Task: structure prediction
Amino acid sequence: MKTDFLIIGSGIAGLTYALKVAADCPDKTVTVITKSQSDETNTKYAQGGIAGVMDVNQDSFSKHIEDTLIAGDGLCNPHIVEMVVKEGVDRIQEMIDWGAQFDRLPDGDFKLGKEGGHSESRILHHKDVTGSEMERALLEAIQQYSNIQLINHCFVLDLITQHHLGYLVTKSTPDIECYGVYVLNLESKKIEKIVAKITMLATGGNGQVYRTTTNPSIATGDGVAMAYRAKGRIENMEFIQFHPTALYEPGVRGQSFLITEAVRGDGGILRNQQGEAFMERYDSRKDLAPRDIVARAIDNEMKINGTEYVYLDCTQMDPSRFKDHFPNIYAKCLSIGIEVAKDMIPIAPAAHYSCGGVKTDEWGRTSIKNLFASGECASTTLHGANRLASNSLLEAMVFSHRSYLASMKVINTISWNEQIPDWNAAGTTAPKEMILITQSVKELKLLMSDYVGIVRNNERLQRANRRLDLLHAETEALYQKTEVSPQLCELRNMITTAFLIVKSAELRKESRGLHFNTDFPNRSELLQNTIL
Result:
């Protein structure tokens, strides 16, 4: 199969890019592939909203920029922050034009929320299902373009580069080029190749490398792992954001139900087992401190009290307002016997967002020619050491737009590579036991949660590295002799992503933002990114 534009991922980053290139190039083919259903994305599960300076009388670009820089703990690129904040307003308007409905006041103005780290109310939202609403609007919008093809259940195995043509490719190889991808068609069970002039990585996050995460099951770090195998540059993977308030349900592992930060913005209070509002002991901003501070505070309270959760107290909030603003959360709590007007909500931090990823420039270009990246799989230097709440959807829209602009300048200079060989599966056989894969996944999640979580130290990181080495060796041996499957390939990608997180954490000899190492409890004066 040949296509002009290939987009891997159907979340906000991928669909925004697809819409723009399709509109500007009606004579060119645009192919969007996703390994699950088209709406099963990290975007879909974004509750809180999207940050933007929509009320210049109460807010300003300078305030949003300053809030982002403070949250990023010194590692944000100020130029990128200013660019995203200022360009983001136009991108939000585009989303509205595509049909996204954000909550408004009776007079028609946006009903803006406030979240941790923000100095003003600037969060546009649709109840507590903002991401789902934006995903709906985007999927409807792409139906208008006959040159966009959306393919579900198509698992990407590898990016195609000169390596597949028989050349030695290393990190120092100049002008590595991406020619497309090999995919496993989950319906036909066949391995196919898609040759593309331009490829966009929009594969989302990697939360599934942890035992408990707010991410869906698809978030296995595929894009980052594929780019790393293709010798692309990866950056700042140690900065894994743990959302402070995921619903605690005894015995539930995997994807946890998210309690959006907007609940605390509306007055929710964190309390420990004794009922104490403890955040005032950790930060003057109390419950609305940046996420890294709140997550570490909760982690410390749980360790002090020997418990697996603390509470989010919403009993003092207006019940009707809560039900109107957070209907999804209200219904979920009620389904497990929690009446938010009377009962406190048990919560615990869960892996939520990767601030690092495939290194890009300000136009979304990666270190591999004709390969772009946008969204959570990318490291744009907007977030630095800690993402400010509700900046992620904004970042995805801005960088997908800028990737589109950069793509338009080169698309007519690129030809399809006609020399791509078929996938070589010689010597492989059907897997004999799935337990070899499922057990390795459990081991991976356990070691990452226990050794590379909210608080780390050198010994834990060393142990994680040794165990990852063993998992890697076992999995690669299985990969060489076994027919590929989504489960095996996801395990491979998760091991690679976990290795990058651990390696980056070992390289950072300080505590900064989301990375807290008890052996290096202080910040260094040397500001640097960890690039692998």
User: Anything to note?
Assistant: The longest strand covers residues 190-201.
